[in-house]
Amino acid sequence: MAQIKAVFFDQDGVIIDTERDGHRVSFNMTFKEFGFTDEWSIEYYHELLQIAGGKERMKHHAQTKGFSKPIAAEELDQLVKDMHKRKTALFVELIETGKLPLRPGIHRFMKEAMEAGLKVAVCTTSNEQAAKAITEKILSDIKFELVLAGDVVKNKKPDPEIYNLALSKLGLKPEEVMVVEDSKNGLKASKAAGIQTIVTYNGYTENEDIEAGDVIVSCLGDPDGEKAKMRKGGIPNFDGIVHVKDVVALFSK
User: Where are the domains of the chain?
Assistant: First the structure.
């Protein structure tokens, strides 16, 4: 097995637990601003998360349940674009005002990766503006070699296109990289690209089929904060903290 040279992070649910209290809330605020009474519940949004991409979720909602006001078919695409643009602005505002904290251990793990000489990258289908708000402001002390976001690829996860693009741009082989993901679709994408994967599940994804993950934990863990619970993985003497050196040793065997 080749030596690990880089770590690729998904964003939503991995770096920040954004889905329930970030994206969902921003969607609902947007619907209200646009004159709709639609409100996506926590349970319903979990269903929608099986569809990759915010614009795609709105289209699915329009075509299956229908919005509270009728929308002409020829107007749907533009309306979805307009609403998604506003939703992104509201979401970025939530991030920048500190209402969505980093997940336990993520900042420490990124720092450890940098100190170990690993390249750090973000591969997300979330909007580029949101990705920049996180990588350039909240995580401004982390050196990111690459941030791939939004519509940079045609096919969204579970398609491996975004991970294949990252490998190509950084000149790396799949066996030289590890990925941190949180969901079934993200895991399918990373594994289809041939990359070993740590899954840090959350409230939305803990009951999904994520058993193909090489290491499965509740979070990455912090020495002075929340500790990780390990569901799967061969990290020796695990103490509730997922350290880069331990995972590199495991994945480089």
Answer: 6-17+102-251, 19-96
